[in-house]
């Protein structure tokens, strides 16, 4: 088994759609980022890279590279999942915590779980996505941005 942890944060202020877990979430503004700004998929990507001991998302997809401007985070994560499979690792389970004062995410959670499970060629029972607020404390509480933590367990492919 291999365990990895990922964390990402982006601030609000974009006129792009808000993408979380590969799903468009209704909200008045998107997140500012070099790519599509999906903090959920970025945290998961970092968690998988951590489990593989292969650095972080910035090493593989640098924000100084114009090729990744506006990049689709689902495609970036899919590439890292392919690296894991090439090394004979598959998803055991994944736990994601989205930290957001706004928007409310309850109605989007199941769609996120399904999308993420599909990327891993797994089932939603192996993916947990939950959301919490910061009780109006800090940058998240002031609705300045969203943060996300992800913990992944990879298991040897049999």
TrEMBL record:
Record-marked site positions (Transition state stabilizer): 34, 133
Segments passing through the bilayer: none
Superkingdom of this protein's organism: Bacteria
Name by which UniProt lists this protein: 2-C-methyl-D-erythritol 2,4-cyclodiphosphate synthase
Enzyme nomenclature, EC number: 4.6.1.12
PANTHER family, A to Z: 2-C-METHYL-D-ERYTHRITOL 2,4-CYCLODIPHOSPHATE SYNTHASE, CHLOROPLASTIC
Transport recorded as keyword: no
Annotated positions binding 4-CDP-2-C-methyl-D-erythritol 2-phosphate: 8-10, 34-35, 56-58, 61-65, 132-135, 139, 142
Reported function: Involved in the biosynthesis of isopentenyl diphosphate (IPP) and dimethylallyl diphosphate (DMAPP), two major building blocks of isoprenoid compounds. Catalyzes the conversion of 4-diphosphocytidyl-2-C-methyl-D-erythritol 2-phosphate (CDP-ME2P) to 2-C-methyl-D-erythritol 2,4-cyclodiphosphate (ME-CPP) with a corresponding release of cytidine 5-monophosphate (CMP).
Cofactor, free-text remark: Binds 1 divalent metal cation per subunit.
InterPro entries attached to this UniProt entry: MECDP_synthase, MECDP_synthase_CS, MECDP_synthase_sf
Ranges of residues in domain 2-C-methyl-D-erythritol 2,4-cyclodiphosphate synthase: 1-154
Binding site for a divalent metal cation: 8, 10, 42
Enzyme class name: lyase
UniProt record similarity statement: Belongs to the IspF family.
Cofactor(s) this protein cannot do without: a divalent metal cation
Self-association state and partner proteins as the record states: Homotrimer.
Listed pathway(s): Isoprenoid biosynthesis; isopentenyl diphosphate biosynthesis via DXP pathway; isopentenyl diphosphate from 1-deoxy-D-xylulose 5-phosphate: step 4/6
Catalytic function, reaction form: 4-CDP-2-C-methyl-D-erythritol 2-phosphate = 2-C-methyl-D-erythritol 2,4-cyclic diphosphate + CMP
Keyword Lyase (UniProt): yes
Keyword tags: Isoprene biosynthesis, Lyase, Metal-binding
MF terms (GO), sorted A to Z: 2-C-methyl-D-erythritol 2,4-cyclodiphosphate synthase activity; metal ion binding
Gene3D superfamilies referenced in this protein's UniProt entry, alphabetically: 2-C-methyl-D-erythritol 2,4-cyclodiphosphate synthase
Gene Ontology biological process terms from the UniProt entry: isopentenyl diphosphate biosynthetic process, methylerythritol 4-phosphate pathway; terpenoid biosynthetic process
